[in-house]
Design goal:
Elements (H helix, E strand, L loop, with lengths): L13 H12 L4 H9 L14 H7 L8 H8 L2 H5 L4 H12 L6 H4 L14 E2 L1 H11 L6 H4 L5 E2 L4 E2 L1 E2 L1 H5 L18 E2 L5 H19 L9 H13 L10 H12 L1 H6 L12 H5 L9 H10 L4 H6 L2 H9 L3 H18 L5 H7 L1 H10 L1 H6 L15 H21 L9 H8 L2 H7 L4 H10 L3 H15 L7 H7 L4
Helix pairs in contact: 12-18, 19-21, 20-21, 23-24, 23-26, 24-25
The structure holds zinc ion.
The site of zinc ion has 7 residues, from helix 8.
């Protein structure tokens, strides 16, 4: 039992609190401090996920209000490391930290075989050191600076420094006090540039949400389902079963760049089919490093709160039946219509007619588009539309239809561009590209009927075809449907 223990500063690590105790206690060596706090000297000074926390709490003075739960959740990296783990695993790690089996913690994370480098060096920000000295009278280690993948102080957007002493220390039982450990030999974690700062801002914001939020735990494959849903939306997957891995890998690399991925220990070889980006989108039983999840989340622009507040079944359902299903059907229909209208044309030609449809299908329905596009003709240069020739052909077709409408003995039909287009099966071309066919356009301008003209023609038709026996004018108008 100790007679005093420092209360934590905001965002301070437990390690840092113990390091401050060590100095204040006046203990000559770290073993004495370990004996004070844990009743044993066989404890290692855990930096990220320390254990023996119950022992520590039991040794604190009665008036000290710190609890095991508060220490684990607020003053260690527990929340960061377990955010993406299933509940049972997270609880197991929690119990290991509270208890005395610290050596099992790393294995329990289940990340042994994902090649992520473990770096437990201690980091700090120079500007935070200054402001902490002003506000609290001493510097201390901040939780958010120790999170793996964090290269920048999110408060000051400045480089983090690696406490050189923490990389050299042979004695795993020593607690370094930041005030006494800053040295000229300390080097920055990584030089920052504009691009890194932008990525780090997003990365840190998500870390902050995890540290300060109280998100529930999820099933291992919950995140995969959520990512799939987003990938489908992004056009990187067609369905849960079909992901365009090569496109995804290239786009992912392009988004972050090799340098940034290397800094975070997450770079991969596109040609290696066992790369982690592919693995995380497949059904898996091993867990992934939180950095990897956070990279996926940023890449897909996922709102982390929305992610954690989503329900597994809901996500699965959404993955199956995306809102794009209806859109898909309508785009497919448009494409097929064009394709059937222009049986002799190639994909480029049809794409030019309706670029939006082509782009949408190419993005969200690529496989189908491939199967439903004109078969490539091997010979020849890419075809440019010969509008002059098309105008001539169109004019002939349009003339025939218009004349047929005017000469019909049936009940009159109004002559409009749409009606003519429907009759020749070329509505789209007529409505969108009439300007490119001046002769057809001129002809249609002359022949298309105004409402008034159409009414007159109907009245005339009624007079000629319906026996009204000289009845009054209004009956004729009624028969003609003219008010
Ligand atoms: Zn700072």
């Amino acid at each position: 039992m100790v007679t005093f223990f420092p209360m934590p500063y905001p965002g301070e690590t437990l390690y840092s609190m113990i390091a401050r105790y060590h100095i204040w206690s006046g203990n000559l060596n770290s073993k004495a401090t370990l004996r004070d706090l844990f009743n044993t000297t066989s404890v290692t000074a855990g930096r990220e996920l320390p254990a023996n926390i119950k022992l520590l709490i039991n040794n604190l003075p009665d008036k000290c209000t710190l609890t095991v739960d508060e220490i684990i959740k607020k003053h260690t990296l527990y929340k960061c490391y377990t955010a993406f783990l299933p509940s049972e695993r997270a609880t197991y790690i929690y119990d290991l930290m509270a208890g005395e089996n610290g050596s099992l913690i790393f294995t329990a994370l289940g990340m042994c075989n994902n090649n992520m480098k473990i770096d437990s060096s201690l980091k700090y920000c120079n500007q935070c050191v200054e402001s902490d000295r002003n506000n609290f009278g001493e510097a201390f280690f901040h939780i958010e600076h120790q999170v793996p993948g964090v290269l920048m102080c999110q408060k000051h957007f400045s480089e983090l420094y690696i406490c050189n002493k923490s990389t050299q220390i042979k004695n795993r039982q020593e607690y370094l006090n930041l005030e006494f450990s800053i040295s000229e030999k300390d080097t920055i974690v990584a030089p920052l540039n504009k691009k890194i700062i932008e990525h780090q801002k997003k990365f840190s914001k998500n870390i902050e949400s995890i540290i300060n939020g109280s998100f529930g735990f999820k099933e291992m494959n919950f995140f995969r389902e959520y990512y799939l849903k987003e990938l489908i939306h992004k056009g990187m997957a067609e369905s849960r079963m079909k992901i365009y891995q090569q496109d995804l890998l290239r786009d992912f690399k392009n988004y972050y760049g090799d340098d940034y991925l290397t800094l975070l220990g997450c770079n991969f070889d596109i040609d290696n089919k066992y790369n982690w980006v592919t693995a995380i989108t497949r059904k898996h039983r091993k867990s992934f490093h939180p950095i990897q999840h956070l990279l996926m989340i940023e890449y897909m622009n996922i709102d982390i709160k929305e992610l954690f507040y989503s329900d597994y079944m809901e996500v699965r359902k959404k993955t199956y039946k995306n809102k794009t299903d209806e859109e898909k059907a309508s785009y497919r229909e448009k494409w097929l219509k064009l394709k059937n209208e222009y049986l002799n044309e190639n994909t480029t030609f049809i794409r030019e007619l309706d670029k939006a449809t082509y782009i949408w299908l190419n993005k969200y329905d690529r496989k189908w588009l491939g199967e439903n596009s004109p078969i490539k003709k091997t010979c020849g240069h890419s075809k440019k539309i010969n509008w002059e020739k098309r105008d001539e052909e169109m004019l002939q077709e349009v003339k025939e239809v218009v004349e047929a409408i005017y000469n019909s003995k049936e009940k009159p039909e109004r002559v409009t561009v749409g009606a003519v287009g429907r009759k020749i099966g070329k509505v789209y071309l007529l409505q969108k590209y009439l300007d490119k066919m001046p002769k057809t356009k001129l002809y249609l301008q002359e022949k298309v009927e105004s409402v008034k003209e159409y009414q007159d023609r109907r009245v005339k038709w009624v007079r000629e075809n319906v026996t009204t026996n000289g009845e009054s004018e209004w009956i004729v108008l009624r028969e003609a449907g003219v008010r």
